[in-house]
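Hello,

I think I submitted the adenosine-5'-diphosphate job twice by accident. Can you confirm which output corresponds to this input? Input:
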Amino acid sequence: MQKYILAIDQGTTSTRAILFDHESNIIGIAQKELDNYYPQPGWVEQNANDIWASCVGVMFEVLAKTGIKDSQVVGIGITNQRETTVVWDKETGMPIYNAIVWQSRQSNSYCEDLKKRGFEDKIKEKTGLLLDPYFSASKIRYILDHVDGAQKRAENGELLFGTMDTWLLWKMTNGKKHMSDVSNVSRTMLMNLKTLEYDDELLTLWNVPRCMLPEIRDTSEVYGYTEGLFDHPIPIASLVGDQQAALFGQTCFEAGNVKNTYGTGCFLLMNTKDKIIHSRNGLVTCVGWRINGICDYILEGSVFVAGAAIQWLRDSLSIISKSSESEQRAMSISSCEGVYVVPSFTGLGAPYWKPKVKGGILGLTRGTTQNHIIRATVESLAYQTSDVVFAMQEDSGLKIEKMLVDGGASKNNFLLQFQSDILNTEVVRSNISETTALGAAYLAGLAVGFWKSKGEIKEQFQIARTFQPSMEETSRIQHLNGWKKAVNAIMEF
Ligand code: ADP
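Support: Only one job matched these inputs. Its output is below.
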């Protein structure tokens, strides 16, 4: 009988279950959208029980759709939106507050307070992270402070904390396993990157009781078995943060391998193997994965507005009717003729870190048309990505030989060719678009012997298309100088 791996991709906007066969083919997908709540501007919350229900729903749906029996599923891999925080009652299993989503800014004051008290550098040194409400620690603090009696109950061992991997594992094992993996824990701001253990000084700073924290485990191992869900217990065999899962799914196993996901924003990750590289350009350092006790570290940078800039062309400027139209419109002209769009609608991230800067369109002439603005907007995704790649190269001393890409906007061939030209680097789009779920599946499959090694996985990697750099060096430098000037201009504005 054919065997399969079931990947759960618990994302911010939806939960999906995807079945993979041994050749990495997608056999079936089921998806359930999730509600987000915005109690105040800048706050984002979700109902953790709804997330669990969506997970159960999509698991059964994908099995029903494909006619595959649970006995044919040899392992479950869970990948998840990172940092999103839930605290629940150990006895009843009921969350004591909504899950606070990674984007939410409601715990900002705790970070500001620690900054004022001079702890920013120490936290960065220990965790590799920037002191920001994005990460879980301040979200736990928020919940313990805003639910009556929660701090005391946490100290008494009555409450448990988890990111979504931990929550789903706990629910799937009927409360038996309270664990997380190093990739997820490295985003909590409570773990020391060197020891890969919770750090007493950090726990004291955040006043988070150790007894509420999940046990830290490898990214690929059998943590436990489903209980009371299927006819046959299924091993849960990987827990991994979504961006790290995509890096694994893209088979970026060597030092200097980079992937970029072009979604609403961009997420760039570089594998730095056993080296913890502290960035001087505002990138964060965390764990990629740990397999059989061997840890791969990563450097990570993000672009706040990427595909969102294409949505802006569609929804705010109304000069394209769908995102994909941006490709054909960009290609209908041979150059932007000096027009640059800097879509820093929510400030500039790495390597500039100017949160208050606004966006701009520069270099307009009487001859500028809609198509110039569309093309310049698409190009801005590539320029912003290049800024992060250059920072990664500088921080790591590693030359990036090629970049593997995924995400919605990676369908745009014009964008990827321009990206390759501007970076002077090969850009590779893989055949499987679901690299996040695939990464979780691979990690689970390795743990249960479905795949034997990373080498065997690497052999399965199928390229959909490779983009080779073809721009003259002088032109490349000219383009990049123009972008630098445009960014400098808006930083002055
Ligand atoms: P997310 O996971 O962040 O929601 P996706 O990976 O689904 O994002 O990608 C969606 C984004 O990609 C949208 O912002 C959309 O505007 C953009 N996008 C989709 N197709 C294209 C395209 N052909 N060219 C440029 N951008 C695109």
